[in-house]
């Protein structure tokens, strides 16, 4: 039997996080793969897969539309099947790594498993990178919010106790230490109590 | 002194349990929110998941220890159907029933024109007539289910098949997530669906479609969701596993208590859980259903509590495997008895609740009978008793 002609692997990306999708797509193109379609929401996911016949679909593990793909291999034999089905034939560690990184994938039968693994590696790396970026952003954001809360509570104490800023800060710190609470939690309590008493106006 | 103080917490690292935001995740939410897990000395972390596939993958690779699962899922995983073969098991059925088949208004009108009586519509006879008369150039009628390995898929196919409709050739069956069912029906993307509540009642209430038949009328009373766990985890953490079963049992009783309904709906509607309005949840639990063409028999309502509901029956695992065989999902030869016994663990259910386990092996098929039994289910010669799995097969 003649070997099937070699051809490039085509990928469909499904991700409702446009920024991440863009990063992943670029990384794949850089690695020499062809991304034939990027879908932000999977409204017509099954139609799109039928129409474009990708070798592989990469989809965010948290997408509620994943289950739509689970049934596809029944509709046509050539449709992609969940990658966990292939984990048995291979070592399953790369599949586990993908799932841990939030990447899930569907692959058609007969695709070179080396290419699938390499492609998965690219997606995993970018998903992790994006996750790191996002948690960093979130921590910066929450730090900012913490500072705003503390400032507001300080202002309320200054007004109520008619003291200066360092004294208000000390009072807040002491309260936090006495109650072994975080400064922000104490600040939040002070603000809500003052609001209740109408003192925050 | 409360039980919380008497029971020390057994696990420092919380048990991670996944759930899908559907009404039948209620026992998990209640066990957590009402402190039933803690009462049993177990620290649990609930994790909201977006798809059944995600639950399967995460339990397979130990990102979750167990989950709210479709009753067929631990069987599919243990057989390696649609996934890498991973031993999973259940010792606790969370709910029975609650499914219905609903079709859109346009299809309903066509069926009315072809039906001699309303029975013709409910039994699929009118649908068969329509399919026979439809031009083959038209795209096939489309029905949606929630997952390939689900009671919804098997009940829909069974219902179609009884009317002489080939569920692979005469219609197209696709997967649509439950929350998108109603919208897809409205837009005409699908012609009908088989799904749990409240999506059947909401279609009726909003005048989008008509519910034809309930899952109960197709299969009698049968398991819908289970507490499925990774078997390796269950073997390494038996005390914790059994404690969780006790907590879930209490939660199921709490959920079925009518007086608790306002609090139940309130808790479930929270953004951490179903993230919806209380009104949307009402049809999932209340005895009141919207007035439709056909009524819900009381037996068809979802039930959560009682030994009849919660005890896993290996006979149901046999039944599910026969469905998988019938609809060409199960291709390899397996020992049905062994799989049923390993996956549906009534022994652990009894152990957890201190019940005396009756030597109950009547469900077993004789070893040389397995193949013919599968064939008989596939051809419709063997079915479930009209009242459901508790009464066995007929």
From TrEMBL, chain A:
<dbReference type="InterPro" id="IPR005561">
    <property type="entry name" value="ANTAR"/>
</dbReference>
<dbReference type="InterPro" id="IPR011006">
    <property type="entry name" value="CheY-like_superfamily"/>
</dbReference>
<dbReference type="InterPro" id="IPR036388">
    <property type="entry name" value="WH-like_DNA-bd_sf"/>
</dbReference>
<protein>
    <submittedName>
        <fullName>ANTAR domain-containing protein</fullName>
    </submittedName>
</protein>
<dbReference type="InterPro" id="IPR001789">
    <property type="entry name" value="Sig_transdc_resp-reg_receiver"/>
</dbReference>
<feature type="modified residue" description="4-aspartylphosphate">
    <location>
        <position position="60"/>
    </location>
</feature>
<dbReference type="Pfam" id="PF03861">
    <property type="entry name" value="ANTAR"/>
</dbReference>
<feature type="domain" description="ANTAR">
    <location>
        <begin position="130"/>
        <end position="191"/>
    </location>
</feature>
<feature type="domain" description="Response regulatory">
    <location>
        <begin position="10"/>
        <end position="124"/>
    </location>
</feature>
<dbReference type="InterPro" id="IPR008327">
    <property type="entry name" value="Sig_transdc_resp-reg_antiterm"/>
</dbReference>
<dbReference type="GO" id="GO:0000160">
    <property type="term" value="P:phosphorelay signal transduction system"/>
</dbReference>
<dbReference type="GO" id="GO:0003723">
    <property type="term" value="F:RNA binding"/>
</dbReference>
<dbReference type="Pfam" id="PF00072">
    <property type="entry name" value="Response_reg"/>
</dbReference>
<keyword id="KW-0597">Phosphoprotein</keyword>
From TrEMBL, chain B:
<keyword id="KW-1003">Cell membrane</keyword>
<protein>
    <submittedName>
        <fullName>Nitrate transporter</fullName>
    </submittedName>
</protein>
<dbReference type="GO" id="GO:0012505">
    <property type="term" value="C:endomembrane system"/>
</dbReference>
<dbReference type="InterPro" id="IPR044527">
    <property type="entry name" value="NrtA/CpmA_ABC-bd_dom"/>
</dbReference>
<keyword id="KW-0813">Transport</keyword>
<keyword id="KW-0472">Membrane</keyword>
<dbReference type="Pfam" id="PF13379">
    <property type="entry name" value="NMT1_2"/>
</dbReference>
<keyword id="KW-0997">Cell inner membrane</keyword>
């Amino acid at each position: 039997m003649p070997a099937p002609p070699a051809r490039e692997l085509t990928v469909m990306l499904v991700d409702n996080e446009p920024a991440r999708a863009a990063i992943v797509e670029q990384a794949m193109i850089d690695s020499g793969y062809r991304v034939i379609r990027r879908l932000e929401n999977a409204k017509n996911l099954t139609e799109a897969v039928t129409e474009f016949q990708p070798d592989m679909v990469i989809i965010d593990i948290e997408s509620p539309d994943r289950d739509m793909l689970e049934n596809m291999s029944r509709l046509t034999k050539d449709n992609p099947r969940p990658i966990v089905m292939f984990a048995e034939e291979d070592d399953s560690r790369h599949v586990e790594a993908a799932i841990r990184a939030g990447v899930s994938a569907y692959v058609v039968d007969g695709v070179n498993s080396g290419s699938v693994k390499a492609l998965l590696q690219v997606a995993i790396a970018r998903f992790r990178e994006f996750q790191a970026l996002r948690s960093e952003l979130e921590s910066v954001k929450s730090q900012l919010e913490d500072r705003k809360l503390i400032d507001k509570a300080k202002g309320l104490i200054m007004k109520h106790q008619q003291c200066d800023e360092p004294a208000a800060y000390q009072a807040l710190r002491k309260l936090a230490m006495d109650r072994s609470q975080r400064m922000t939690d104490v600040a939040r309590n002070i603000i809500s109590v003052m609001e209740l008493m109408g003192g925050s106006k | 002194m409360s039980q919380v103080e008497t029971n020390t917490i057994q696990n420092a690292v919380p048990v991670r349990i996944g759930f899908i935001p559907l009404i039948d995740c209620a026992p998990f939410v209640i066990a957590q929110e009402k402190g039933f897990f803690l009462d049993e000395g177990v620290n649990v972390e609930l994790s909201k998941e977006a798809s059944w596939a995600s639950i399967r993958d995460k339990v397979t690779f130990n990102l979750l220890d167990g989950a709210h699962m479709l009753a067929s899922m631990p069987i599919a995983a243990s057989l390696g159907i649609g996934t890498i073969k991973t031993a999973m098991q259940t010792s606790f059925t969370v709910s029975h029933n609650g499914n219905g088949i609903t079709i859109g208004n346009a299809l309903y009108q066509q069926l009315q024109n072809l039906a001699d009586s309303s029975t013709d519509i409910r039994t699929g006879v009118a649908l068969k007539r329509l399919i026979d008369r439809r031009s083959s150039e038209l795209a096939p009628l489309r029905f949606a289910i929630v997952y390939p390995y689900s009671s919804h898929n098997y009940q829909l196919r069974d219902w179609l098949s009884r009317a002489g409709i080939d569920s692979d050739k005469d219609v197209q069956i696709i997967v649509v997530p439950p929350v998108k069912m109603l919208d897809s029906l409205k837009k005409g993307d699908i012609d009908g669906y088989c799904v749990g509540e409240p999506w059947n009642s909401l279609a009726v209430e909003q005048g989008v479609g008509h519910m034809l038949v309930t899952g109960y009328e197709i299969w009698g009373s049968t398991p819908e969701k289970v507490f499925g766990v990774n078997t390796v985890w269950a073997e390494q953490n038996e005390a914790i596993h059994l404690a969780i079963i006790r907590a879930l049992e209490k939660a199921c009783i709490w959920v079925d208590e009518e007086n608790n309904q306002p609090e139940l709906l309130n808790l479930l509607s929270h953004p951490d859980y179903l993230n919806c309005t209380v009104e949307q949840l009402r049809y999932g639990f209340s005895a009141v259903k919207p007035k439709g063409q056909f009524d819900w028999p009381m037996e068809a309502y979802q039930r959560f509590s009682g030994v009849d509901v919660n005890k896993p029956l290996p006979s149901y695992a046999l039944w599910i495997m026969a469905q998988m065989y019938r609809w060409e999902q199960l291709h390899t030869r397996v020992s049905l008895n062994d799989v049923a016994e390993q996956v549906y663990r009534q022994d652990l259910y009894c152990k957890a609740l201190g019940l005396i386990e009756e030597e109950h092996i009547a469900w077993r098929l004789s070893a040389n009978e397995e193949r013919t039994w599968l064939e008989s289910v596939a051809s419709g010669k063997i079915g479930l008793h009209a009242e459901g799995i508790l009464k066995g097969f007929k």
